[in-house]
Amino acid sequence: MQPLSSVKSDNKAPRPLSLRIHSAIRWLHTYISLVTLLIVLFFTGFTLNHAEWSSGGLTQKEVTGTIDVKWLNITAPDKLNIAEKLREDHSLRGHVDELRIDDRECTVMFKAPGYAADAFIDVKTGQYQMTILEEGKLAVMNDLHKGRYAGKMWGVLIDAAAILLTTISLTGLGLLFFLKRIRTGGLLVVAAGALLLIAAVAITLR
To answer: Residue 7: inside a domain, yes or no?
Structure first.
């Protein structure tokens, strides 16, 4: 004779499909929300609407120096040595956003979030003047929020954050369909939010 516990486990009915779907959606919504908590706070965009808050942190510095004239050949400039010489001499940050040369001047621009360094080099003498701008921490955050000058890896992070935030929204909406008592009211709120967004966009673009 089988033990009673064994008989009960054999006769246990499988969970309904709807209940399993509900559990899976709730699990996704809960744990993705926890994982992306700081990402959601970072990408709220609140500081983007108040760029003036970062204006007090701006610093500007003017520097000068000399580049080897051999690197400034108009037809085949040595871009790597030019950029790395400037970077090393002045501890520059970021990547080279632009490097162009003509018969009078070579322009090199370094960019990073909240940071810019622009050098203007005389191709005949190799002498240059450079302006280095550094903005405050809020400006850095705003540039990171927009993905400006942050590099490819940061762009991948932004895409991943967008996918995760979209998943949170969709799973939250999916959970609403399993909550019968508030389903209708919740869907009405979703519809009202969509209409408000459409109206705001229409008014802004008028």
So the answer is: no
C-beta separation of 98 from 75 below 8 A: no
How does DSSP classify residue 14? Answer: P
Q: How many domains does the chain have?
A: 2
Measured between alpha carbons, how far is residue 180 from residues 2, 17, 142, 176, 188 in Å?
42, 17, 41, 8, 13
CB 135 within 8 A of CB 124: no
Residue 4 forms part of a structural domain: no
* pLDDT tens-digit map of 78-131: 999 999 999 999 999 999 999 999 999 999 999 999 999 999 999 999 999 999
Q: Where are the beta strands (DSSP E) in 8-146?
A: 59-66, 95-101, 105-112, 115-122, 127-134
The string of pLDDT tens digits covering residues 158-169 is 888 889 889 998
* pTM for the whole structure: 0.70
Among 110, 134, 158, residue at a domain's last position: 134
Domain boundary among 134, 155, 185: 134
Look at residue 167 and give its three-state secondary structure. helix
Q: What average pLDDT does the chain have?
A: 86
Residue 9 forms part of a structural domain: no
